[in-house]
Amino acid sequence: FHLLFGTYISGHFTNMPAYYFARISHRCVWFGKQCLFLFFYALWYALLFLGGSFWGCCMTSSEKPDQETWRCFFILLAVCVSLLMLTTLVVNLGIILGKTGVGFLGCWIGIFVLEIIAKGTLHNRWLSFVNPMSYSRVLVLKSVEVQAKILYLYSLTVVVAVGGALLLKNYDISLREVE
Question: What is the value of pTM for the model shown?
Answer without folding.
Answer: 0.77
